[in-house]
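pinned: reference chain
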Amino acid sequence: MHFRSALFVAALACTALTGISSLAQAQNRNLTITWGEDDNNARTFDPRVTSSRHESQVIAQVFDTLIGSDENNKLYPGLAMSWTVAPDGKSVTLKLREDVTFHDGTKFDAEAVKFTFDTVADPKLGSQGAIDLLGPYAGSDVLGPYEIRVNYKRPYGAALAGFAQNELSPVSPTAVKKLGDAGFSAAPVGAGPFKFVTWERGRQVLLERFDAYNWAPPFMKRQGPSYVAKVVHRFIPDASTRVAALESGEVDIADFTPVLDMRRLGDDKRYKTMIGNATGLPFGVMLNTDRMAFKDIRVRQAFAHAIDRPRLTQDMYFGLIDPAYGPLSKTTPGYWTGVEQYYKPDRNKAMQLLEEAGWKPGPGGIRVKDGQPLVANYYIIAPLLPEVGVAIQAELKRVGFDIKIETVSFARLSEIVGSNTHDILPLRWINADPSLLEIQFHSRNIPPPGVYRFNMARNNDPVLDQLLEKGGSLTDGPERTAAYADVQRRIMDAAIWFPIHNQVNPIAYRANRMGYRFARAQWIVRLYEVEEVR
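pinned: its structure tokens
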């Protein structure tokens, strides 16, 4: 071949390869990721209000936090470039990024942070999660356009951990003022990698890439706009339907995949799996100390001794999930191993305690006292593992409890909690700091009439309140660890909380995508870094 002809052919080949490469890159930058969510009861996507990890799966894509955190709970600069904790622990000064805008074009600045925190603190908002993370908030001082001092009524050692949580993500003041709190909850505006587009209630949420995004935390491998152009967040509460949708290609990634499917899909090269071992309050049940039989600590102790947690967990989850023993999961900072000595399975001990409390064997094996059977209601919302409730019901019947299980909507559950008509309620809470225990066990969170709050045991213990406040005032170190050991001991001594198993999120996804990453506390999945496998 003539030399010039050879050069011409080579040039054509090079042009063709460049075209193919450009096409591949263009396709990789135009991905759609469809997430299969295990719940369809979303109520709000306002980070200031939510208490739901299901809602937070969307919120984590739309909002960014002041302090970044990876899946191992290590802290990094986020929307705040740096922070300084005052020596007395009663304020934190944040220096903010100057190059950030919200999705509506509003400039992110110190005024936006102050607005977010002030509205969280306002009872009119009805915050359920952020209000506790904000702690003993005493207002904020704007020191400059991009510098703010957040003040507290007392030393608050959990402040930095709170700034890394989704619930304290800054919101666009412009959008909130324009839409109102209710409108904002259905059309939120943040500064994260994806913009909120639409919400078809009960069906799906649609997000799209925020092309101006260029402020990812430094632990992220990717910087700049995501390769993912669209996120479709599908509500598929039935597990078998969710797995079928994954296998048919309707979804790319499935939330809370059943254990047996995880094993099967993990052996299939078309799929990959990942398991988040969540930090925070493990899955368990609250026993209402203000109602009926559970007013007697001996009955609560009998409840605990009657259940064989290791066997129950092994039977249900085939070794994928470990039993839990206290109010913190083993992966949470401050976990006290002493909880593992409490309430070991002992059916005879359970029956002895019930006898001492005056509950005698009655018709059908159900115990009776003063002519009343030992009946307790157990209310469940669908995502909180009804199958565990059934297993508990069977265990307790062997010692004489009659547990009535009812699956209810969240609206109905709110009514039940606000009217104090529950006996047993399941609960879990994903959070990377032991200060979360104030949410479930401090007396200020006992639900007032008509209000949904999380001290569902209705435990009013001034000593426990003091211990919780002491732990919350301390920074990381041996003293803080010791304080939270005292908290866990006090909770377990009172037998108000019965832990069942550590909480994990088993995720299965199609192998033609990579870059899924668990967020802080290892439950929520970040989609920002996803790209196509070539």
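why pinned: Confidence is low (pLDDT under 50) at residues 1-24. The CA atoms of residues 211 and 225 lie 5 Å apart.
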